[in-house]
Amino acid sequence: MRIARFVAGDNPAFGAVELAADNGDHPDTINVLNGDPLVGPVNYTGERLHLDDVRLVAPVIPRSKIVAIGRNYVAHAEEFGNEVPGEPMTFLKPNTSVIGDGEPIILPTASNAVDHEGELAVVIGRICKDVPVERAAEVIFGYTCANDVSARDLQERDKQWGRAKGFDTFCPLGPWIVTHLSLEEAADLELVVTVNRGGQVLERQRSTTSLLVHGVAELVAFVSSFTTLLPGDVILTGTPAGVGRIEPGDRVNVEIEQIGRLSNPVVAQDA
Q1: pTM of structure
Q2: Exposed/middle/buried for 210, CB within 10 Å: 0-12, 13-18, 19+?
């Protein structure tokens, strides 16, 4: 199932996305749900909307935290001359950095070097602590695409990454959450990041989650070993090699096999 959060009137709602590719008998639609599936049981309202008639927003706004993992692909660590850490390297991004598909990434005036970082994101579905690796699947609600946008110059200058990774709009998520993937399937998904610049499509990143140093189950176990995870919390699993600069006028696309395509324009912050 693909769970999306959308706006068709005044307030966001949740729905199950039904793509024509799955069933040629109908256009792309969204089957409206009567609540938040991350909070409790929901039912269909009976209302079905055309996907083109709604605006998708971030499929989840973490109530608590986004835990991101650094240097979790060997090639990405090497492209910056860094060693791969022996255990997952974690940092936090604020929930105010989250935007959805189609919303603009705003380049802050404080930085002259902002990069994209396409990633697989894991959405937690229940309160959990000290989760064993073998039970990680029980606490995962689903998966979505993410872009861990990073002000590279501030990251180098500050040493701590809170500012460089935490600006508003620096965590695009979407377009929806896929709930039907198994851990085994999530362990071998192709990830491709392209940047559309002036009509030219530039491929920047192409890799697979099979190259994660620490896999999804291991990350859930590790993160839950030091912090309680809540429904809607997000774990960003790390980015592969090929991160690169983004500029006003660009459009960044993060596409993950079996999940979807997250696409965001890039704009400059108003002076």
Answers
A1: 0.96
A2: exposed
